[in-house]
């Protein structure tokens, strides 16, 4: 087990407004979320001395403009003018989960005391995923000429392999979309405010087979944030903290331009979760509630299997029969997931994992939670996993 | 059958790793990067052999026969250049001689409904201009 388990905790969480398109600059969303997280902790902005984010704009073919389409650490520094800032970083290789893990490491190293991590997501005008221009450079030379644009198609191809190899039926995924939306209706910050029926899922238009509209999270403009600190300091703050029992990151690699490899998803998820299980000392059977990244629905399937919650080929059966309901055997994406909140990436999954562990999830609180699992990105190339607990051990 | 005649594809830009692949395709041959130390074929080309770390890599011909590893049927017309072909099949092919080396393509000369995991395909060549010819796939004869 990890010698640093339960030494770091997440305290406050914060949200900005979530809108379909930009009505105010993205920087203002990020500021709103960061201020909210700091206030939720009972801290003042001047207490914050660490900053971390993953600022990427996942939309392809759009300009990255700081403050408009991304919010860099530098942008946040300019807005906050923190008098006691001692540490900051932007991560690249493991998405927003990597930024959280770097903040954990910085706190363990003692180079900051209260770190804020935010994720701000922009929805550009026009088509979200464009092919490159007239020419395809770099890795896209092997994909874009065939009409492969954004990550959705890359995940769709792996999903057809999963479905046909396992003789499975995409209609079973309706249970995930419908159940998550039901959970999302108990989340006041979610984008979608109306239920989704099985019929609506099954009759919705196809985007990239086997993905229909409701297999894809809706692009939105918004931001969320968390405050991390040491367990000792967290106990003196306003909210009950959630203690970090362990984390992991994907260790499998993928060659740029090689898409659709189902085994890469599985190897990525297995490597990250193995570290998390070993460091925390827990196993999948110990988990009381799980948040698994669902930017595209199939990501949940790869997550459930590669993290070890069920065997390969079984995930679409595993999610049936009430198992992922709030009172089920494994309540899943209890905040509604990205399919309900909109595309804000995995920090919201981490926030929900924290709230469930600390007993702060309100109307959607799962009973008797101690072990709260989070898979914060698609397992393939950016995967990270976390376990938060209510009680240190 | 998808109508590809009105589709304007992005033109691949070869670089120092990939030029031999595109030169071979222009001449109607499929050549993949192969490690001269361990014999591993890989695609897309890379700086080192991802199997054994050797840097002695050469492009060698393959037969271009393989199976559909995975596919998607594209319905979304976000990028208007491909709208005329929707719905169309974008496929990932695993070649017999190069397990693990996944090649993207479109399934040509067949309705998109013929795309199925495991179905046998063979390479064909689709010229885009004088310099660039795309390897593509059709159901194996």
Describe the structure.
The complex is a heterodimer of chains A (393) and B (141). Chain A has one domain (8-125, 217-389): Thiolase/Chalcone synthase (Peroxisomal Thiolase, Chain A, domain 1, 3-Layer(aba) Sandwich), CATH 3.40.47. Chain A is built from twelve helices and twelve strands. Chain A has helices spanning 26-41, 73-80, 95-109, 151-165, 174-184, 198-203, 231-234, 262-280, 298-306, 315-318, 338-341, 347-358; strands at 8-15, 50-53, 87-90, 114-121, 135-136, 206-209, 211-212, 222-230, 242-249, 289-292, 371-375, 384-389. By secondary structure, chain B is mainly beta. Chain B has one domain (19-139). Chain B has one helix spanning 19-26; strands spanning 11-12, 31-35, 41-42, 57-61, 65-74, 88-95, 102-106, 120-127, 133-139. In chain B, 42% of the residues are buried. In chain B, the strands form two sheets. In chain B, strands 7-6-5-8-9 form a five-stranded antiparallel beta sheet. In chain B, strands 3-2-4 form a three-stranded antiparallel beta sheet. Chains A and B meet through strand 5, helix 4 and strand 6 of A and strand 1, strand 5, strand 6 and strand 7 of B.
Short description:
The complex is a heterodimer of chains A (393) and B (141). Chain A is of the alpha/beta class and 393 residues long.
Write the topology of this structure.
The complex is a heterodimer of chains A (393) and B (141).
Chain A: E1 8-15, H1 26-41, E2 50-53, H2 73-80, E3 87-90, H3 95-109, E4 114-121, E5 135-136, H4 151-165, H5 174-184, H6 198-203, E6 206-209, E7 211-212, E8 222-230, H7 231-234, E9 242-249, H8 262-280, E10 289-292, H9 298-306, H10 315-318, H11 338-341, H12 347-358, E11 371-375, E12 384-389
Parallel strand pairs in A: 2-3, 2-4, 10-11
Antiparallel strand pairs in A: 1-8, 1-9, 4-8, 6-7, 9-12, 11-12
Helix pairs in contact in A: 8-9
Chain B: E1 11-12, H1 19-26, E2 31-35, E3 41-42, E4 57-61, E5 65-74, E6 88-95, E7 102-106, E8 120-127, E9 133-139
Antiparallel strand pairs in B: 2-3, 2-4, 5-6, 5-8, 6-7, 8-9
